[in-house]
Specification:
The protein has 206 residues and is α/β, with parallel strands linked by helices. Helix content is 15%, strand content 24%. The model has no long low-confidence stretch (mean pLDDT 96).
Length: 206
């Protein structure tokens, strides 16, 4: 497991419910860890140099409240070293048979991914989020708790869609954006932007 915060703790329970076993945590131990004390912490550089890429599947336990750069960087760093990432689907989630999910995607409890949706590498579809038909969510994005993507929505790479936000049908949100909690997005949002409010007002992300 990469990371040991709140998101990692939730992922641990999803793992255990699915019958998987967590071998340890990648990183330096901190008293802020949310994981049980029984797990061994191994620094990043030791895992990258000494661990077999065939012997372990990684789980990206780094969450985000807006900035996804760390989660994205760790995924790319360990992929470049040859490691693969486990795709996780909580038992109470619903994923359409026609949806496509790529490596390292995490679909949490009560989340829904509908027909022909495409979810790219390292994306979080968090608790209770809804991704409707024909949506495309690019790599390392986070669709936060209770957020709704209506049909044919596109979400760019490393974009955070905040809790209970709604993106209306056909809207394109660019890369490296932050959609504020509870926002209602009616129109396209360009790359590197912040959108907040009802209806959402867009400004540049400085």
């Amino acid at each position: 497991m990469l990371g040991a915060g709140g998101h990692a703790r939730v992922l641990l329970e999803v793992l255990e419910e699915a019958g998987h076993h967590l071998n340890g945590v990648v990183g330096e131990y901190s008293q802020a860890s949310k994981l049980p004390d029984r797990y061994t912490f191994v620094p990043d550089h030791i895992v990258l140099k000494e661990f077999s890429t065939d012997g372990y599947l990684m789980i990206n336990g780094v969450g985000s409240s807006s900035d996804l750069s760390l989660r994205d960087r760790l995924f790319r760093e360990f992929k470049d070293a040859g490691f693969n990432f486990l795709q996780l689907q909580a038992q109470t989630s619903h994923i359409s048979e026609s949806a496509t999910l790529f490596e390292g995607v995490q679909v949490m409890h009560q989340a829904v991914v509908h027909s022909e949706a495409v979810i790219e590498d390292n994306v979080i579809i968090n608790t209770g989020a809804i991704v409707e038909h024909h949506c495309v969510v690019a790599e390392s994005a986070h669709i936060a708790v209770g957020a709704v993507l209506c049909g044919n929505v596109e979400i760019g790479a490393r974009t955070h869609v905040g809790a209970n936000a709604t993106i209306l049908q056909g809207v394109r949100v660019g890369s490296n954006c932050i959609i504020g909690a509870g926002a209602v997005v009616l129109h396209d949002v360009p790359d590197n932007s912040i959108a907040v409010g009802v209806p959402a007002v867009v400004k540049s992300r400085s």
